[in-house]
Specification:
Order of helices and strands: EHEEHEHEHEHHEHHHHHH
CATH superfamily: Metal-dependent hydrolases
Strand content: 15-25%
Low-confidence stretches: 255-260, 275-280
Strand order of the largest sheet: 1-2-3-4-5-6-7
Shape: elongated
Radius of gyration: 39 Å
Number of strands: 7
Helix content: 40-55%
C-alpha cells in the first residue's frame, strides 16, 4: 500500500480527476486532498466536498495545511481534528517549528524545503516531535517540476539536512503536485529518497509504513479519548434492554402476588417431602439391627410356647 498524503485540491480545479486517475494508475492506494490556509483561522472551517466519481482503488482523505508564523494566533487546532482527517503545520521560522514539535496538536509537520530556510535542523527538537507521534514531511513536487534550479538545489540540501538531523526516522514523502505532470511512481520516489540520504528500506517506509502510521494515529485521535482509550460500544442499548426486563419483572410481580405465594408454598412442601424421603431411606445401624433381631427371636419363642 502506497500513500500520497499531500495533493493540493480545490473543488473548481478541472484537473483533479486526471490527477486522481494517474495516481491510481501509478499504484497509490491512499491519497490526502489538502487545503492550505495562511494566517489566522476563520471562525468556521469545513473541508471542501470530495470530487465526484473518484477511482475505486483510491481511499480519499481530507487534510488541512496551516502555514504557521505566530503560534499564538492559532489556538483551535484541537477542534480541527473532528473536521479533517489530517492536520499539518508548515512553520516558517524556528520559534514556530519549536512550538509545533513540542506543544501544538497536529499530525504532520510539513516544511517548504524548496526555499532557503532561516534556521538549522536540531536533533533534540525534531526527536521531540517524533516521540509524540508526529511525522516530518518532505514534498518533492516543487523540486521536480519547472520551479527553477534554486528550488531543486534547496530541496536537495534541506532534505539531506533534515534526514541527517532525524537519523532517517519519522520521515514521510509526499508529492504536493498540483498537476499529474508533477507526480512520480512509488519506486521513483524511493530512488529519489536514496539521493537525499535515506536507505532503500527507509525510503519505502516513508511512503508505506510511516504514512500508514500517520493516518492510523490521526484516526485514533478522532475516535478515542486523548488517543489512549477507544470506546467501541457505550452499552446504551444493553442498559435499555435490562431496564425494560426489570420493569416487566416488577409489573408481573405486582400483577400476580397470589401465584408467587402458591409457588413458594409448593416449593416448601416439595423440600419437606424430600427431607422425609431422605430420612426414611437412611440405612439402619448395627445396634438397631441387633435390637430388631432380638425382638424377632422373642416373638418366635412366645409363639412356640403357646
Amino acid at each position: 500500500m502506497f500513500y500520497d498524503l499531500n495533493v493540493p485540491y480545490s473543488p473548481d480545479d478541472p484537473e483533479v480527476s486526471a490527477t486522481l486517475d494517474f495516481l491510481a494508475e501509478l499504484g497509490y492506494t491512499t491519497v490526502a486532498l489538502s487545503q492550505t490556509i495562511s494566517g489566522k483561522l476563520p471562525p468556521s472551517l469545513t473541508p471542501p466536498p470530495l470530487p465526484p466519481n473518484p477511482p475505486k482503488s483510491l481511499q480519499l482523505l481530507t487534510r488541512l495545511n496551516l502555514t504557521l508564523s505566530d503560534p499564538a494566533q492559532n489556538q483551535r487546532l484541537a477542534s480541527l481534528t473532528g473536521s479533517y482527517d489530517l492536520v499539518a503545520l508548515r512553520p516558517t521560522n524556528e520559534k514556530a517549528l519549536l512550538n509545533a514539535c513540542t506543544s501544538l496538536e497536529c499530525d504532520v509537520i510539513s516544511l517548504d524545503l524548496s526555499v532557503r530556510l532561516p534556521f538549522y535542523f536540531k536533533f533534540k527538537m525534531l526527536s521531540a516531535a517524533i516521540s509524540r507521534g508526529i511525522r516530518l514531511e518532505i514534498c518533492y513536487g516543487p523540486g521536480v517540476t519547472g520551479s527553477g534550479l534554486d528550488a531543486r538545489r534547496n530541496l536537495i540540501g534541506n532534505a539531506t539536512a533534515l534526514i541527517r538531523a532525524t537519523r532517517g526516522r519519522g520521515i514521510i514523502v509526499s508529492s504536493e503536485a498540483r498537476k499529474a505532470l508533477g507526480l512520480r511512481g512509488p519506486w521513483d520516489v524511493i530512488n529519489l529518497s536514496c539521493v537525499w540520504g535515506l536507505s532503500q528500506e527507509r525510503g519505502k517506509e516513508a511512503i508505506c509504513e510511516e504514512a500508514r502510521k500517520v493516518t492510523a494515529l490521526a484516526k485514533l485521535k478522532r475516535t478515542s479519548w486523548r488517543g489512549i482509550i477507544d470506546v467501541l460500544h457505550g452499552g446504551e442499548k444493553k442498559h435499555a434492554e435490562s431496564g425494560q426486563k426489570q420493569k416487566n419483572a416488577t409489573q408481573s410481580t405486582k400483577a400476580a402476588p397470589s401465584e408467587t405465594g402458591a409457588e413458594n408454598l409448593k416449593r416448601k412442601a416439595s423440600l419437606s417431602s424430600e427431607v422425609v424421603t431422605e430420612e426414611t431411606e437412611k440405612p439402619l445401624s448395627k445396634r438397631e439391627m441387633k435390637r430388631r433381631a432380638k425382638k424377632a427371636r422373642l416373638e418366635a419363642g412366645g409363639d412356640d410356647a403357646s
